[in-house]
Amino acid sequence: MNAMRSTLDALAQLPGRKSMVLLSDSLPAESQEVKFENPELNTFPNTTRFTWVLQRIAEKAIRASVVIYSVDTQGLQYTGPTAADSVDGLARANTQMVTSNIMTARSSLLRGRREGGQLIAEQTGGFQVRNSNSFELKRILQDQSGYYLLG
Known about the structure:
Shape: elongated
Helix content: 40-55%
Radius of gyration: 19 Å
Strand content: 5-15%
Strand order of the largest sheet: 1-2-3
Number of strands: 3
Order of helices and strands: HEHEHEH
Structural class: alpha/beta
């Protein structure tokens, strides 16, 4: 979070429209593990929700004329059962339910890991690259090739 803020502070000094590509395999909107505390944001202590901080970063980017593109570097992920999953001793009827539960849990985890990147990209006018084994930098450059300024 601090690295994004510092980068945006530096980009704000440059004239014109700017782009920032954020490469991350996990930028959640909330975390259940770590408590985020930033002395600069003394109104936001000891919480597990990053949404407020991400919205402030997006506002800073908008003021600096920076469009943020988020790239989920996890690539295309398989969410179904694998050889590492333990399904020993299950009846055939329960196998389908277990498979469904595994897929739901893994899909939810993937969605949660990219929520923050999606939020910050949408709010600044960019988009998120996900479910791809490519960073799609050409697509990002094409998006930057022209824009309209309405006043």
